[in-house]
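pipeline stage [seq->struct] | target=Flavanone 3-dioxygenase 3-like | organism=Ziziphus jujuba | residues=359
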Amino acid sequence: MEGAQGGSSSSSRGLFTSAMTLSQLGVSHVPQRYVLPPSQRPNPTTKYCPSANLPIVDLSSLQHPTLRPNVIHEIRMASKELGFFQVINHGIPHSVINHAMEAATEFFNLPIEEKMLLFSDYTHEPVRYGTSLNHVVDQVHYWRDFVKHYSHPISDWIHLWPSNPPTYKEKMGNYTKAIHVLQKQLMGLVFESLGLNPNYLEQEVENGAQVLAVNCYPPCPQPELTLGIPPHSDYGSLTILLQSCPGLQVMDSNKNWVSVPAIEGALIVQLGDQMEVMSNGQYKGVVHRATVNMANQRFSIASLHSLALSKKIGPAPQLVDEQHPKAYEEFSFQDFLDFISRNDIMKGRFIDTVKNNIP
């Protein structure tokens, strides 16, 4: 496959224009390739849900045995109804979070020539800078720039991460390691909320994949015509997201888009396709998207966690019986990567390809 050795074709490189470059040029209209069909455009009247209406789980309550059942119940209800919740008092210091956001800001402020050293249109590349989702195949482009890098075990990958800005590896590395610890705790809590042993798949979780997607959504002259990322669910088990300001929207059970407020110090937890499958459909991978705005540059850091690249995952056997037949076939992270390399994300969800037709 072209670009499989870490490069990219000169033709795709020539087609590349980052969203940040367009914003810095001061374009007054988004180019036609960013304009979504009317039915897919964000509705400026989208219902805004105050933070009190979206689930917030206080993990410090786990230290009190009498409060632990409440936390498990809150996670169960949030996972069933939305596939989404926010966590506070999660144990990651503010300084680690702030330094990670500083590293993201400094990276995207680099000259384009520096960022292009990491450019690739090959979706399997372990470290990749790009724009949109995959600008070569996207029929409509999305108003975001990103750098993605494999992150666990960090010792295998950190030497490939950006060397500029000079503090990027240290700041983002500290955040990545802290998030991986939190993810293991959250996976245990989600499994417990399903009635499984909290240590279910413990080794697979420990040895799973972690991909960090660091995103920049520049100010956009016509935010009503485009999106930063289109509606989708994540492929993995959990995604832990940090956002600098509002822009994330999640789809609720009534198919309404709900804006997620940025709460100081909170981290967003999104369930992905693997968790939907492991729960045999009890929990849902949350469908979400990123909007853009005219005034602010928005950054987000998404830590995407999944089982190992080739590990096949299916419904937990304990959650399958006559009343609850197996609703999904097994799949792996590799299967998902193969799917997105061949398909337009707007034309169908990967998880629909592994669902069983149950009468």
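stage status: PASS
auto-comment: Residues 1-11 have pLDDT under 50 and may be disordered. The two ends are 41 Å apart (CA to CA).
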